[in-house]
């Protein structure tokens, strides 16, 4: 298993997008692309799997909603029955309108926070983590494409040059 | 160029004929005297077969509500007095008028909502929507005829041919201090003058914008587009003020004691979401017939997002209005919702399911918004749900607990549906479906998500 890669720097997102398509069309495996900002359509061009964060957001929202209903039912109806708005019905359903803001907020709170936490876990990010991007220019104005190398350095370099790369380099294998 | 297919034209005429028959039946079967009204209420209470007769024109759920309505009528009957009989008589007399007015206003509101959406797209110089401009212009063609019908109904009310607006009756005002205090605003000449002024303003914008839009097709420069942009921005300012006052006048004043400060926004959200839904439905229909080949899934997806978003926005406004009044429980305010929850339980809560829960769950998924089947299904429910919304705004104050979604109501809906289809699709044949001169057309045609 070769873990040697070749790095190609681009200075324009449109060039990068067409380069990604071209490299993939020539049956090379793109390891990763580093960009200073999200490039529209890049995930589709790279053939990445569709994100599953959306369905998780829905599930998290449902959890938040359930927690809110359970909590408020216990607090306001069961444990210490409250006279809400001068209508002492002591029924969850009849007092429901007063609880809607809480249910809404809890749904949003759970969905948002758990989504962010999920995203961090999945992308293996945590505070003080060292940056993984191989070239600091990708945090400024350059785009970097990392392609797997299988002793086809010449061919690949020519292809990348053709797609408009401004700089091509093969980093030394720093892994121990 | 689009050609209005004979099949659709015949369908529109069929709807109009059936609808007209239903409306005429409604007017003929309204009671002429107090005795007749008493007999009708008694009959609907005692005759068990009555509900089954109507089962063909309504859903089972409506029937259940009808059953409880019988119960309410029955209780009232036991303790009735002469004034109550007269009240019921007026409500039953109002019924066909209210059925006509709800349907007339509902379809008029669709074209007004589309006009606002169109103006927002023009004023925002939106890049995605120019491919849909001609569809929107087709729908707003209904604005003038639909608006004239509504204003005529209001005028007939002003001339005391019906009693939808009780503040128009000097006899009522004389005995009502609250309404007497509002006479400076709520008087027939000023009311009708406002109605004509609003309709004239909206129609004027529609006429000017359509003219520039057609002129832009053949123009060499963008001057028509720029003028359209300026008129649209100006119109939006005019619209939000006049729309708000229109909603007080045409709907809120039916219940002249009650008021809500966000009523204008609430009615606006309703017309906006229905209008956007109708744009999506008509675009999908035209696409299925081989027109609008330049409209792709991403355009439908964006309309779906708007349907979803504005449905939630409508719910937000509806709930804000409901919760504050429910919570504070001030008698003169809360009666509005007590009537609706007690006498209109099913349409009131059914409407929330149709306008909020259903679109929320169906249109949440990104892929469903790109699938015509789901957009059409959600769209039909949203349109019917907002008809119910208008029904709930107008009926409780006009006919009280004597409501029913029967022949006159369905007839009114079908008649205006037929008229709407006829006028909108006739207007669509008048101009090419692609506004080819629009400077954003290239961006719109390439638009993808």
Highlighted features:
heterodimer; A: 176 residues; Alpha-Beta Plaits; 2 domains; rod-shaped; B: 449 residues; mainly alpha; 76% helix
Walk me through this protein's architecture.
- The complex is a heterodimer of chains A (176) and B (449).
- By secondary structure, chain A is an alpha+beta fold.
- Chain A contains five helices and four strands, in the order βαβαααβαβ.
- Chain A has a four-stranded antiparallel β-sheet with strand order 2-3-1-4, covered by helices on one side.
- The longest helix of chain A has 27 residues, at 53-79.
- The mean pLDDT of chain A is 89.
- Chain B is built from 18 helices and no strands.
- Mean pLDDT of chain B is 88; it is low at 47-79.
- Chain B is mainly α and 449 residues long.
- Helices cover 76% and strands 0% of the residues of chain B.
- The chains are: A alpha+beta (176), B mainly alpha (449).
- Chain A binds chain B through residues 54, 58, 85-87, 97-98, 100, and chain B through 319, 322-323, 326-329, 364-366.
